[in-house]
Amino acid sequence: MKNFDWIVIGAGITGSALSYELAKQGLKILLLEKDSNYANATRYSYGGIAYWSGVDDFSIQLCQESREIYHQLSEELGQSTEFRELDLMLTIPIEKNPQAITNNYQKFFVKPQLLSPQESTEIEPLLNPSAISGCLKLPHGHIHPKKTNDAYQQAFLRLGGTINYEEVTQILSENETLTGVQTNQEKYNSKNVVICAGGLSRSLLKTLGITLNIYFTHSQLILTPTVDINLKTLVMPAILNRLDIEEKSGDSGLKSLWNHPDDEIISDVMEPGAIQFLDGSFCLGQISQIRTNPQAKIDSDSAEKTIRKEVGKILPELQDLPGKLHHCLVAFCPDSNFLVGKIDSLRGLYVFSGFTSTFVFAPPLAKRFASWVVEDDEKMPSLL
Ligand SMILES: Cc1cc2nc3c(=O)[nH]c(=O)nc-3n(C[C@H](O)[C@H](O)[C@H](O)COP(=O)(O)OP(=O)(O)OC[C@H]3O[C@@H](n4cnc5c(N)ncnc54)[C@H](O)[C@@H]3O)c2cc1C
Fold first, then answer.
1. pLDDT tens, 102-123?
2. 3-state DSSP helix/strand/coil percent for the chain, to nearest 5?
3. I need a labelling partner for 226 at 20 to 30 A (CA). Which of 71, 251, 322, 368 fits?
4. What CATH number does residue 291 fall under?
């Protein structure tokens, strides 16, 4: 049978959570994923949940819903997400004024606590106090990203959903109405298709002549095996240069570069960070490069050296851990926290991608999206 109520393209956390929520509404769903190895942003993520990051009524409400969802998600999905609450330690470089950096965080509904270098090492003993002028501490959530993705998928399969490992090569339509998709193996019929293709969402939309404000970074990080060191917190820099650059890369002048067929390098940012998962392995990150070609080659040796050196300044004991460099694409929207809604010019086409803090916003929005679908399509935001 090749007819479905909905086809979801991409089985990272956005596509898996959304497929599950749509199937829970009794709909017949096909989830298509091109990469059975899951070398995607979800697998290579820290898995941090920024509950504190709401800035207006809607985002604050989503943060609160997200917290409630995660507290019972393992039970609901019947499989562990390894959810826990932990401290997020945002490191402030030694040369920066801690108070000025703290002021940048006053827009969030949960305010950070400013700690001296000494106080920071009492909470996170692996920090190097001479490399920082302090830390901002925030209450954060954490899950294992790949295990959470698997848990959503297993629960989706139990609801009767289908997952096929095929690449969508074309989205099919007739008379401005969607009819299905063509993959590298099959043709599937559906009146509704939602793009959850992460960094490749932009290219898929472009095959339809649709240009939305969604872009991607090339992210590089190191995954280690289980090691006998104990990092208690999630460590990231307080100054996220990547967010500034993502915002600027969508400015009118730079937008035209994104249509350039060759590989244009718009920027390159190193943000030293680390998380340890419950099995004792680490993710050390991360370099974010804005390059217009999704297939661009990465200089793995140089990226690995840079990550080790910069992480080593903040967390010296992590510098020489065994581990391997990985690379993935991460979608972003310069002027909003996510791109979720329908494309009016092609009836039946939807986008659920481009999240800034995906792990906090995608699960509650997947629930809303599914309820808009069955209860009131008028509530679904229009993107074009
Ligand atoms: C080092 C690092 C740390 C991070 N830390 C955090 C964090 O702490 N908290 C947080 O919220 N976010 C974090 N992120 C970002 C987060 O991981 C991503 O935003 C999120 O995983 C994106 O999910 P996604 O489903 O949109 O994309 P992906 O996980 O990339 O999934 C998209 C999928 O679509 C598939 N696909 C694409 N095109 C097609 C096609 N044509 N046909 C079929 N399948 C297709 C791809 O193969 C891929 O599997 C981090 C990212 C990195 C790299």
1. 999 999 999 999 999 999 999 9
2. 35, 30, 35
3. 71
4. 3.30.9.10
